[in-house]
Design brief:
- This protein has helices at 30-55, 58-63, 67-90, 100-132, 137-177.
- With 180 residues, it is mainly alpha-helical.
- The radius of gyration is 22 Å and the shape is globular.
- It starts with 29 loop residues before the first helix and ends with a helix.
Length: 180
């Protein structure tokens, strides 16, 4: 029987030796992902509602919406936040706790992804209506790219802020658990 080919990654190791990537470690705590995603979306919505209330246009804005639309937008944002939090926290999970530095960096990165993905559905729908209505495809693409860039920056900023809050929360949990 022929030996399997050896590549740069497996040179010097047998096929059955675990490496850092395949080594078994405890799974990412689902409660941490669900809890942080729910906290992030709820805190963001509360801040936006309070800001709109203080600025004044909250009543006008809410009069044009209904409960189903509000719940749909909340559920869409929560699902995106859950998905991106899962990705961000998975890279910071060491099997026994979270690496604070990695959690903060990945929160910023995945916050940008959340911003772009949140914009994606309304952007595609409005772009289709604009092109059908006779707008230049090039102009719609340029506006879409600019909107994606702005939403990525805003998402990264919001993700960075929530990442900093998460680091404080995760350190508090580690302190309670007695982990340095």
């Amino acid at each position: 029987m022929a030996e399997p080919p050896v590549d740069e990654c497996t040179r010097g190791r047998s096929r059955h030796e675990p490496d850092a990537e395949t080594e078994e470690r405890p799974p990412l705590p689902a409660l941490a992902v669900w809890g942080l995603a729910t906290f992030h979306v709820t805190a963001l919505v509360v801040v936006l509602v309070v800001a709109l209330h203080v600025a004044g246009p909250l009543g006008e804005l809410l009069s044009g919406l209904n409960t189903a639309v509000g719940l749909g937008v909340f559920a869409y944002l929560w699902a995106l936040t859950w998905w991106t939090n899962r990705r961000a926290l998975a890279g910071a999970w060491d099997g026994d706790g979270f690496d604070s530095r990695a959690a903060a960096k990945r929160a910023t990165l995945w916050g940008g992804v959340t911003g772009v993905c949140f914009l994606l559905a309304p952007l595609v729908a409005s772009s289709a209506f604009l092109v059908i209505g006779g707008a230049s495809v090039l102009a719609v693409l340029a506006i879409g790219l600019l909107a994606a860039l702005v939403s990525a920056v805003i998402g990264a900023l919001v993700g960075g802020v929530f990442g900093a809050v998460d680091v404080v929360l995760l350190r508090a949990v580690d302190a309670v658990r007695g982990r340095p």
